[in-house]
What does this fold into?
Amino acid sequence: MQEPISPDAGPGQTPVRLDEVDRKILSLLQQDASLSLDQIADRVGASKTPVWNRIRKLREAGVIRRQVAILDPEALGLEACFFVLIRTSEHDKDWAARFLRALRDRPEVVEAHRLAGDIDYILKVQVRNARAYDRFYQSLIAEVKIHNVTALLSMEEIKATSALPIPEAAR
It folds into this structure.
């Protein structure tokens, strides 16, 4: 592995160069981050110390942000997933700060994205049911002014993954 780029290089930084072993390690960790170092080393065909060093460098470079357990929402009774499209007529810093704080303070917002185009934001909101979504909605609009909200109920999750496609090395 070539020396990774510093994670604090900021926007526009050059992506970290990955070799085949790095890609295999990342692929394994995306599938199951609870694998032991011995298991990873065995599966990539390397010894434990070099694999540990690669993982450490990938963490230091910001390629591996964190390791988490992915929970099943239905097993927790969170059976309703809403995608919430938000348009706002407010674009000043104060409004944005209040809006971001409101989103970060609500655990039912599991994803939030600022968009280009006609819609300003899209949220993924995981709740028990429609009543729980309505409580979330009423609470949000009481806290921040929103021009237009459209909520779309997901009828079926067809694909969900946290695994990113790992780019091949430039040739």
Remarks:
- The domain at 74-153 is CATH 3.30.70.920 (Alpha-Beta Plaits).
